[in-house]
Amino acid sequence: MAESRPKVWVSQPLFDDIVERLHAHFDVVQVPDVSEHDAAAIAAALREVDGALVTLNERIGRDEIADAAKLRAIANVGVGYNNLDIDALQARGIVATNTPDVLTETTADFGFALMMAAARRVTEAERHLRAGQWQGWNFKGLLGADLHGSTLGILGMGRIGQGIAKRASGFDMRVLYHNRSRLPAEVERAFNATYVDFDTLLAQADHLVLVLPYSAASHHIVDAAALAKMQPTATLTNIARGGIVDEAALADALANGRLASAALDVFEGEPAVDPCLLALDNIVLTPHIASGSLATRRAMVALAVDNLIAALGVGPDAGRPPS
Ligand code: DGY
C-alpha cells in the first residue's frame, strides 16, 4: 500500500509557480475563498493537516489548534507574526516561521514614500486637483514640510528601521532612534543614528516613523499623551501594526492642529478603517502594502515554502533550521 503523504494547507491563493514546490512533498489543500477565513474555518482546515502556509489574515491561537492533532508547523508569509499565538503553538510543540530580510528594503522604500507623501501632502494635493479645485498656481496653497535638513525619528531600529535610516542619509536628515535596546556603537555610526529616550524622540522628531513589532508592550504606545509630546508641525508614519497607535487620539490630534499630518499603512481593525481617520484630509491611508512589490511578495512566498519544507523535515531542505 502506498505510504500516505503529509498534508499541508495553503490558506490563500499565492503564486502558483512557487507554491507548486510543495506538491513534490505534500498533498496540498487550498481554500480559495479568503472570506471563509473565520476562526471555525481555520480550525477545520488545521484539523486535517501536518503543516500550513498562512498570511497575516489568519489568526491562529489556542482555539484554532485545539483539534489539530497532526499539526507540526506553521509558515507565516510575513515578517510580523502577531497573528500567531506563539505561546499556544510552543506549548503544543508546533514550529512557527516567518519571512524576515526578504522584505526589508521594499518596506523601507515604502515607509520613506509614505513619510514624504505626508510631509508634502501628496494625496491631499491629488484629491484637490481631481476634484477640479485647482484654480491656477497658488503660491501659498498646500504648503508642506521639508524632509531634507529635518530630524527623523525612528521608533524600532530593527532591519526595516535601519533601512529607513540608510535612506535618510541621502536626504541630509538628522537621525534619532529609540529601540528596546541600544544598538552597538559601530551600527549607530554606520547609520549615523543617535539613540534617545522615547520622550526625546517624540519631542525632537520632525518626522516620526513607527517600525517596531506589535506586542502587549507596544499596544497604543503612541497614545494621546505621546502625541501631545510631539511638535504640532510634525508628521507620523506607521508601517508596523495598527494597534501601536491609538487611532482615535491620532485623529483628534490631526483634526485639532496638534500634529501636521500622518500616513498609515496599517490599522487596528484592518481591513476596517476607523471613519474618524477617513474623514481627515491631512492623512495618507494605504491598504497594508508596504512589502507589496511583485518581486518581494514572490520572495516572501518562496521563503515561506522553504521554511515549511524544512520545518516538516522533508526534501533537500530537511534539517535546515527554519528562519
Ligand atoms: C509583514 O510582513 O509583517 C508585513 O506587515 C506584510 O508584509
Helix content: 25-40%
Low-confidence stretches: none
Which CATH architecture of the largest domain is right? Answer: 3-Layer(aba) Sandwich
Strand content: 5-15%
The strands making up the biggest β-sheet line up spatially as 8-7-6-9-10-11-12
What fold name stands as the CATH topology of the largest domain? Rossmann fold
Mean pLDDT across all amino acids: 95
Number of domain modules: 2
The small molecules bound here are: (2R)-2,3-dihydroxypropanoic acid
CATH-assigned homologous superfamily of the largest domain: NAD(P)-binding Rossmann-like Domain
Total helical segments: 13
Structural class: alpha/beta
Global outline: elongated
- Compressed to H and E, one letter per element, the order equals EHEHEHEHEHHEHEHEHEHEHEHEH
CATH class of the largest domain: Alpha Beta
Task: Give the CA-CA distance, first to last residue.
Answer: 36 Å
What's the Cα radius of gyration? Answer: 22 Å
The major beta sheet can be summarized as:
7 strands, parallel
| Overall number of strands | 12
